[in-house]
Design goal:
158 residues
Length: 158
């Protein structure tokens, strides 16, 4: 099946994001009380346990929008991967989509498991976030990069 290794690679990237995201959240949940935290890296970053009912960086409040967006991202990825559309845009685009997918699934698992998202990375000047949010952001940047670069001709565009 053409693109099977490409789909496998994307699936592995997404699965790695979900696994690492969920592992870090469980560590935070079991070792830091809600609202508690501590400084790391000489106080440049804090690990702060926050329960976030919104989506990335706390936007959209408690509405059903975060769940809907997560489900739509997963559905789009499945459709695009099965049709070969993701692969046809090059490796940066493919990796970016996989990062967004992994982040969306990681946060969706939280919503199903505990009813909100567990956030913990705290720079004190930015809303508290988690690794899934970071993956979504990095993935979106990669997708935009691939689109701006304009290389959408498949394998030769890597």
């Amino acid at each position: 099946m053409p693109g099977a290794s490409s789909g496998l690679r994307s699936g592995l990237v997404a699965a790695a994001v979900v696994t690492i995201d969920q592992m870090t959240k469980v560590i935070v949940e079991t070792s830091i009380p809600d609202g508690g935290g501590f400084a790391v890296l000489g106080g440049a970053v804090y690990i702060t346990h926050v329960r976030n009912p919104g989506s990335a960086f706390g936007i959209f409040g408690t509405s059903g929008v975060p769940v809907l967006v997560s489900v739509l991202v997963v559905a789009w990825w499945l459709a695009a991967t099965l049709s070969g559309k993701v692969r046809s845009h090059g490796r940066a685009f493919e990796t970016g989509v996989a990062l967004v997918l992994g982040g969306a699934v990681g946060n969706l698992i939280d919503r199903v498991r505990v009813g909100c998202v567990i956030d913990f990375i705290d720079f004190r000047f930015w809303p508290v976030f988690n690794l899934a949010d970071a993956a979504i952001t990095a993935g979106a940047v990669l997708v935009l990069y691939a689109m701006v670069r304009g290389k959408t001709g498949g394998r030769s565009s890597e």
